Task: inverse folding
């Protein structure tokens, strides 16, 4: 079993839809959770991060972490064509100086006008 | 913008030739990383550095070496390029703040090995 599993997609939705992107993980030591957005032919950009369990909201985006289920989600409300990109989840324990991020493989989202 | 530049941005080379990719940062971050990104595999860590002359291997380090002689520069070398090393290479830095440590990525280098 991979440490981080992400729905493979691709995902296509109409403009204005609510989008739910999900990742599951197996390492219970993970406590930092991130979502990156990557536009075509660009580097990943940090979209949101959360520590431990709970929700975090930023505009149309909400990140949710459920450590008991080892499940994280990113919700996008009122999706726009500009949200069309690949979304990668990432997580880390950062318990040591040389801790590293573990990434999901990413899901490509297309928002149709 | 994390002040990261990568060079070259695109490169075509032949099998068996050495290739060096450069990552440059302007914010004096201690940690720097090299990843490769391939369809079906996502981002995979090649090597990372935790200070000048301090480096360690990631999960896909075979065929790659790195060097860091200055805080701002982290070099990735393919000693003898193979077609399996055709990929997009990203450099990243670790930034700490508000109790969270996160990574920020450069724009990437597209490498084609013929």
Result:
């Amino acid at each position: 079993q991979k440490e981080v599993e992400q729905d493979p997609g691709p995902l296509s939705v109409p403009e204005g839809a609510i989008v739910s992107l999900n990742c599951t993980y197996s390492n219970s030591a993970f406590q930092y959770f991130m979502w990156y957005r990557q536009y075509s032919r660009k580097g990943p950009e940090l979209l949101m991060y959360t520590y431990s369990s709970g929700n975090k909201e930023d505009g149309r985006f909400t990140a949710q972490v459920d450590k008991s289920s080892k499940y994280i989600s990113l919700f996008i409300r009122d999706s726009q064509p500009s949200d069309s990109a690949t979304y990668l989840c990432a997580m880390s324990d950062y318990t040591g100086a040389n801790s590293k991020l573990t990434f999901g493989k990413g899901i490509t989202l297309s928002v149709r006008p | 913008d994390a002040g990261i530049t990568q060079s070259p941005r695109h490169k075509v080379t032949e099998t068996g030739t050495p290739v060096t990719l450069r990552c440059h940062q302007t914010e004096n971050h201690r940690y720097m990383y090299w990843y490769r990104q391939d369809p079906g595999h996502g981002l995979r860590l090649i090597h990372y550095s935790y200070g000048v002359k301090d480096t360690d291997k990631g999960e896909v380090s075979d065929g790659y070496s790195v060097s860091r002689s200055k805080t701002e520069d982290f070099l990735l070398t393919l000693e003898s390029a193979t077609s399996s090393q055709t990929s997009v290479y990203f450099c990243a830095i670790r930034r700490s703040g508000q109790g969270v440590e996160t990574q920020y990525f450069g724009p990437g280098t597209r490498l084609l090995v013929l």
The first strand of chain A starts at residue 4 and ends at 6.
